[in-house]
Amino acid sequence: MKDVRVLAIGDLANNSAKLKKYLKRSKIHLINFPWNTPSIVMDEKDDVEFFTSSYIPAQLKKINEVKDKYDICLAISPAGARLAYLADLNYVIYFVGHDIRTPPFIKNVKDPFAFDKPVYSFNFFERRFYKSVYDMATACVTTGHEAYSNLLKYRKDGIRIDHSIVDLSIFNSTIKPAERIKEKFTFFSPQRIGLFKGYDIILKALPLCKTEFEILQVNWFDKRNVDEEKFCNEFLDKIPQQIKLIPVMKRDDVAKYYMFADAILGQMKVGNMGGIELEAGVMKKPVLCYYDPKMTYLIDGKEITAPFLPNSRDPKELAQLIDKIVLSEEFREDLAEKEHHFTKMLTDPEKTAAEWDNLFEKIFIKYKNINRNSPTIIKKLRIYYFLITNRLYIKKFKKIFKIKL
Predict the structure, then answer these.
(1) End position of a domain, from candidates 331, 346, 361
(2) Pairing relation of β-strands 297-299 and 302-304?
(3) What is the pLDDT of residues 301-310, one digit of tens each?
(4) What integer is the mean pLDDT of 153-166?
(5) In this structure, what CATH number is given to the domain that contains residue 317?
(6) Which residue among 21, 111, 173, 382 has its CA within the 20 to 30 Å range from the CA of 44?
(7) Strand, coil or helix: what is 250?
(8) DSSP readout, 164-232?
(9) Does residue 116 lie within any of the structural domains?
(10) Do 388 and 376 have their domain in common?
(11) 220 and 114 in one domain?
């Protein structure tokens, strides 16, 4: 069978870039949105194409121009799925974050890990539109116990792929450390600063610590809503003395800072591991990351509990662990070894690639074509409905007729 050609739309965490390096029976090409910060952390060598406009009809025009070169579509984020739906494609949605925990079609949906206020302010028609986007997906895939449980609430045919990928060509223990002077024990924190990542817990823990250390924190803020923005502004007004902000960097440089640091400070809110924690674990660095033991991982058919610490969101426990990491080399090495063993199993690139190759091949065999081939009038009505629900002026609808359907 020929290689399956996959058009990926949207990617905030280099998932497509990592997959494409290891897939054997599929070829991925990514077109990403012109987001400044995520764009910065992607390397030019990843062959990523970016939309030249933030205007959705222009993005849709681009997708319709290139779609026939591909067999199926992979959408990461509701924005990517929205375009795939409007372009009438056979698309797989890969949920890697809060997009399935707080789906945009639920009225007044709140993020249990970050906000007291609703995540979206969508009206009835907008929510109905996004429900169609999620429902019309050819397949929905996610990773981990928590995300999969949320997916099953809306799609009984949801697919779980817990195996992940760490790009071993970048993140490995042979990388040379970043060239800078180390004056004291150093934590590296490349995650975004914000409530969702549990930075409020970190700030409460720091005054409780009895040891001296430095945190090299990437200057990257999560400002998705008013609450997050307020938190970030307050943080900037009074940055704790242990924290030193450093610029956003390429992934190659992130790997160098992993090697430079004595330990890694991860997220403290959600309860499972993201890319940062897995990358550092593979590189044999001790990682502090809140992990809920109820969020098991499916590895080779078995439910596995991860060894990451702490297992609570209590700032006191985090402070005690920080001090223990700083003071005890034996504790650091033991924790790093356990986390390394787990992450190596979870991020086996051959097994991960095989699962995705099998999925893409199965979908291609079933549908044969990236296009759903819905009637032209249906495709146009979807676009009209989307523009109307987003409160655009009717005069802008005329631009739709310039899009090749």
Answers:
(1) 346
(2) antiparallel
(3) 899 999 999 9
(4) 92
(5) 3.40.50.2000
(6) 173
(7) coil
(8) ----TTTSSTTSPPPSS---S-EEEE-SPBSTTTTHHHHHHHGGG--S--EEEEES-B--SSHHHHHHH
(9) yes
(10) yes
(11) no
Residue 299 near residue 162 (C-beta atoms within 8 A): yes
- Looking at residue 18, its pLDDT comes to 82
Residues 298 and 365 in one domain: no
Residues 231 and 295 in one domain: yes
Q: At what angle do helices 275-282 and 329-346 cross, to 10 degrees?
A: 110
Phi-psi sector, 77: left (phi>0), alpha (psi -120 to 50), beta: left
Q: Is residue 172 part of a domain?
A: no
- Cα–Cα nearest to 60, from 46, 81, 36, 90: 81
Whether residue 342 is found in the same domain as residue 355: no
> Structural domain tally of the chain?
2
Shared domain for 106 and 25, answered yes or no, is yes
> Burial of 302 by CB count in 10 Å (0-12 exposed, 13-18 middle, 19+ buried)?
exposed
Residues 295 and 274: beta-carbon distance below 8 Å? no
The torsion angle over the Cα atoms of residues 364, 370, 375 and 376, rounded to 10 degrees, is: 180
Residues 359/141, Cβ–Cβ less than 8 Å:
yes
Average pLDDT over residues 304-329: 97
In 3D space, the residue among 160, 131, 156, 135 whose CA is nearest the CA of residue 147 turns out to be: 160
What share of residues in the chain are helix, strand, coil (percent, to 5)? 40, 15, 45
Alpha helices in 238-296 (DSSP H): 251-260, 275-282
| Edge-to-edge strand ranges of the sheet holding 287-288 | 243-246, 214-218, 186-189, 263-265, 287-288
Helix axes 376-389, 78-86, angle to 10 degrees: 140
- Domain of residue 224 covers 186-346
Tens-digit pLDDT profile for residues 89-129 = 999 999 877 788 888 888 888 777 766 777 777 888 888 99
**Quick check: is 284 in a domain?**
yes
Mean pLDDT of the chain: 88
pLDDT digits (tens, 9 = 90+) for 217-249: 999 888 777 777 888 899 999 999 999 999 988
In which band, very low, low, confident or very high, does the pLDDT at 386 lie, cut at 50, 70 and 90?
confident
Q: What is the pLDDT of residues 182-206, one digit of tens each?
A: 999 999 999 989 888 899 999 999 9
- How many angstroms separate the CA atoms of 378 and 168, rounded? 45
Containing 346, the helix (H) or strand (E) segment is: helix 329-346
DSSP state, 92? E
